[in-house]
Amino acid sequence: QGQLVESGGGVVQPGRSLRLSCSASEFTFSNYAMYWVRQAPGKGLEWVAVTSHDESIKYYAVSVRGRFTVSRDNSRNTLYLQMNSLRTEDTAVYYCARRKIGADGLDVWGQGTLVTVSS
Amino acid sequence: QSVLAQPPSASGTPGQRVTISCSGSSSNIGSRTVNWYHQLPGTAPKLLIYNNDQRPSGVPDRFSGSKSGTSASLAISGLQSEDEADYYCAAWDDSLNGVVFGGGTKLTVL
User: Fold this and answer.
1) Which of A59, A118, B66, B101 is deepest in the core (most CB within 10 A)?
2) 3-state DSSP helix/strand/coil percent for chain B, to nearest 5?
3) Which pLDDT tens digit goes with each residue over A81-95?
4) Cβ contact (<8 Å) for A45 and B56?
5) What is the C-alpha separation between B64 and B74, in angstroms, rounded?
6) Residue A4: predicted pLDDT
7) What is the CA radius of gyration of chain A?
8) How many Å apart are CA B107 and CA B102, to the nearest integer?
């Protein structure tokens, strides 16, 4: 079925950087497009970024464009989110998720990692 | 304010049928497929419906999805207490080049 495990969250000051990782197992990671989705405390879901299986296509939400970079290492079965110039409004639980092949739905999600941006 | 519009809350009694609506535009629901997720407090979202009306394996057939024009709906029949959760619709948006989510609907089983 597949498993995703995020790591790298924590407390960081505004303007600083953080890199999140998402380790994949139990499926062929290199075959799948991968997404980052976040959820601010008490709020709804917000899409952050997507990368195609081979990194040839990447898209970002307007709110993070120019500050966040999604990447992947298919040899290590790992997805990354480099977050620079962090703002207080970036405080959220960050989830990585796998897109179902042949569909738009995200069928496997990690447990999430909390990023808190605060001085 | 979310690109896709959902009612903030819905409710029903055990055994009842409830529907949750999701309204979008021609750049998202009108031209793309709709997915539905549900989320229990403190847990990750889970895919409930994909490609407008398809259920992943393991999702009971009490859950069904439909789409018409720029709107979509999720129906839950035979409501159970464990269905109490937040429900989100989502679709790709061709104008934004990204996924747009509804604001979420909190379902309460009375």
Assistant:
1) B101
2) 5, 50, 45
3) 999 999 999 999 999
4) no
5) 6
6) 98
7) 13
8) 14
